Amino acid sequence: MIKRCVVAPSIVAGSLLFAMPALANCPALPHTMTNGQVADATQLMANLEALRACVNSLVAGSTNSVQVNAGSGDLTGVGPLTNGQLVVGSTGNAPQAAAITAGPGISVTNAPGSITIAGTGAGDIYREFGAFAPPIASSFTYIDNAGSVTPSVADITNIGLVYSVNVTNSTNAFAGAYRNAPALSAWTWTVRAKYSTPNGSWPEFGLWIKDTSGKMVGLVSESGGFIIKRLNSNTSHNSNPFYSDYVDAPNWFRVQYDGTNLNFYFSWDSQNWLYVWQEPKSGFLNGTLQYIGIGGLHDINETSRWKAGSKTGAVVTYWDIDDDPASARTH
User: Please, which pLDDT band fits residue 123 given cuts at 50, 70 and 90?
Assistant: First the structure.
């Protein structure tokens, strides 16, 4: 029996292997065949090899380059691409190899075959009139309990430093979280915080300075007004030498110490500051500053407005002082 071999028309009859298409400057195929001609295997393989060599000659660039139509039947290579690079269009020009650039608060991690984009919540994210640079919770080395009122501080990613305390109806419980006062001859301390001060009650939040005797001076925002407060201790109120009503509560606080006086400021936008009070360090205080910190009253005296388990406090989103500058923190 004689067996017949049928060769697929797409291989034999098409022009691909019989005449080189005019798409590049490649030499003619070594063997020309016509329709109906019985293909010779040796000639067919020679044409295939010539076609392979032609295709290889068309590839542009080095190994792993991306091929781009350069016009006139030619190719050009883009790359090879490094980790995280993409082929990016350029109007009227050949595409380019480029990497993704991280903007403020964004991180880009490149790896072989992958790109990871994430938010960082880092120092230069600008949120509502100010940079995001909260203090580190571990920097508060002294928690000032007031009776049964014990505050806490925690670092919450992309939120800030959360100062939290149970609501009380004690108007003599000035709890807070503190660190040592700067061991500097002069310093400026700037804080931004969001805090709760319901109308008709007395919760407050602000910045406090303690001396070595336990006396305290505070720059605080309370329900309906901002106040300078003097305390004999964290459970004994002395006086309010300054008070002013407000309609819109400021959320920026600043204390400047010049070596002799404590100067107190409020702001609504971190750019324009209202200078409200000067307190000599050796006036009400004993002249030796021991701690600086955050806190205040956590009293809502109308107990019908809250139930057990309620909390108040503040989220601190910015903290800058000479011995702990905001620029040094990246969380």
Answer: very low
What pLDDT is recorded for position 25?
62
Total number of domains in the chain: 3
Residue 131 lies in a domain: no
Rama region for 214: left / alpha / beta (φ>0; ψ in -120 to 50; rest): left
204 and 291 share a domain? yes
Letter string b/e over residues 73-111, b meaning 16 or more CB atoms within 10 A of that residue's CB: eeeebbbeeeebbeeeeeeeeeeebeeeeeeebeeeeee
Q: Domain containing 271 — which CATH number? A: 2.60.120.200
CA atoms of 211 and 175, how far apart (whole Å): 16
Which token pair is 155?
């670092």
- Whether residue 101 is contained in a domain is answered as yes
Determine contact, residues 143/150, Cβ cutoff 8 Å.
yes
Q: Are residues 89 and 168 in the same domain?
A: no
Residue 113: the pLDDT is: 73
Domain encompassing residue 34? 9-59
First to last CA, the chain: 84
Residue 67 has pLDDT above 90, yes or no: no
Provide the 3-class DSSP secondary structure of residue 74: strand
Give the pLDDT score at 6. 37
- Do you find a cis peptide bond into 95, omega within 30 degrees of 0? no
Is the domain of 174 the same as that of 238?
A: yes
Of residues 61 and 131, the one with the higher pLDDT is 131
What are the residues facing 161 on neighbouring strands?
155, 316
Tell me the residue length of the chain: 331
Mind listing the pLDDT tens digit for each residue in 249-258? 889 999 999 9
- Read out DSSP for 113-161? TEEEEEE---TT-B-SSSB-BPPPGGG--EEE-BTTB--EEEEETTTEE
This prediction has a pTM of 0.64
